[in-house]
Amino acid sequence: MSDSTGTGAGPRTTVAGRPVVRRVAGHRPRPVPAPGAPAPQWLQVLAAVSWRLLVVVAAVSLVFYATAQVQLLFVALFLALVFTAVLRPLVDLLDRVMPRGIATAIGLLAGFAFFAGLVAYVAYSVADQWSALQRQFGQGIEQITDYLEGGSLPFVIDRDQIAEWVANAQVWVQEHSGELASQAAERAGSVVEIFTGLALAIFCAVFFLARGTSMWTWFLNQLPARVRGTWQEAADAGWSTFSGYTRGIVFVALSDGLLALVFLSALQVPLAAPLAVLVFVGAFIPLIGAPLAMVVAMIVALAANGFWAAVVVGLGIAGIGQIEGHVLQPLIMGKQVSLHPVMVAVAVTAGTLTAGILGAVVAVPLVSVAWAIFSRLRTVDPPLPDEDEDPLVEHVGERGDGVPDEEGAAPARV
Q1: I need a surface site. Which of 22, 233, 261, 414 has the fewest CB within 10 A?
Q2: Has residue 47 been placed in a domain?
Q3: pLDDT for position 397
Q4: Is the predicted pLDDT of residue 393 greater than 60, yes or no?
Q5: What pLDDT score does 383 carry?
Q6: How many domains is the chain partitioned into structurally?
């Protein structure tokens, strides 16, 4: 059965119901894809990568959702690991001369004593300098008001405008007193949660310090024997990075706080000790904490000692930040946390958007641990050649005659 047409494509016939194109002189027929032909290679690769990316995104989203539902538990376990990483060297040292349980108790008491002493010192400094600070703060506000009224700024702000702003603020507080009270009640509930999480963290840290190795061995024994080596290797890389980062950042924060205390005390800035503690706390928040501490210290110096004192304080704390970034962190942490500054900035931003200040604090150590585990378990392919090298030449001796050079290099192979 055949069917001829007069179109430019040439005569067509049908065989078993399927069109067959016959070649005609001077005519190039278009290929007709067979039914059920596979998709192009590029489309198959794109589809394979896409569904794998969707699975990864879904898994990460599930982890974030589950963590948000048990945020208090996550924070408690994170703090327990921090306490363990910081106190583990002291407990291991004491374990050489006394039972492990007693060494753990002494280590935890030492950490608690340090924290309590720090809080007591800050409270004493605030109470001792509060009256002088009130007087200096009032004088500083008066100087700032005089400068706004008759300074060299392109605009003028008089006392009547300032009084109007204060009155508007008082009206706003009165109108929103109910909302402020409810927020205060919520904060009170948050305080209870904080103490609950802290108690859970200390409880877990006791067992991590005293029986951490036995607990990890028990966990490995629950896994199939063929995967225990991989889990152990990943755990070694992750814990080494996390403990190195934790101990390093604590030492760096202490150094920043001591330098800030000496610097602010030399300039006779009020509340030097609390401001130094603020610098200490800010060191735990990459990219954000140090600028915030610097701004607060500058405001106190501006209100108490004037404009130029605030400028000097800002430059001094910025210098301390430079010492931290270029001297202390490379010297103390070394290569245990090898993240590019761009990755640090992205991690801190993502953590802040996801969980606020808490996310900014935990983002960098978590990303560092994930990268350390990935780097340990991955299989690295040969690197790409440099732009100045010929990718076809593996090695060429200096003599270029196929004979090894003086350093024992292999003959040239092209």
Answers
A1: 414
A2: no
A3: 44
A4: no
A5: 73
A6: 1
pTM for the structure as a whole: 0.67
Contact 292, 158 (CB under 8 A): no
CB 108 within 8 A of CB 199: no
Judged on CB neighbours under 10 Å (0-12, 13-18, 19+), 50 is: exposed
How far is 91 from 210, CA to CA, in rounded Å? Answer: 9
CA-nearest of 78, 63, 73 to 354 is: 63
Fill in the DSSP letter of residue 19: E
The distance of Cα 43 from the centroid of its chain, to the nearest Å, equals 36
Pairing of strands 12-15, 18-21: antiparallel
Residue 167 lies in a domain: no
Between 25-29, 256-260, 369-373, the lowest mean confidence (pLDDT) is in 25-29
Q: What angle do CA 243, 244, 245 make, to 5 degrees?
A: 90
What pLDDT, on the 0 to 100 scale, is given for residue 106? 92
Examine residue 269 and state whether it is found in any structural domain, yes or no. yes
Domain that holds residue 207: 69-160+190-377
Residue 394 lies in a domain: no
Tell me the Ramachandran region of residue 236: left when phi exceeds 0, alpha when psi lies from -120 to 50, beta otherwise: alpha
Work out the mean pLDDT of the chain and round it to a whole number: 75
Q: Which residues contact 394 (CB under 8 A, 6 or more apart)?
A: 413
Distance CA 80, CA 111 (A): 13
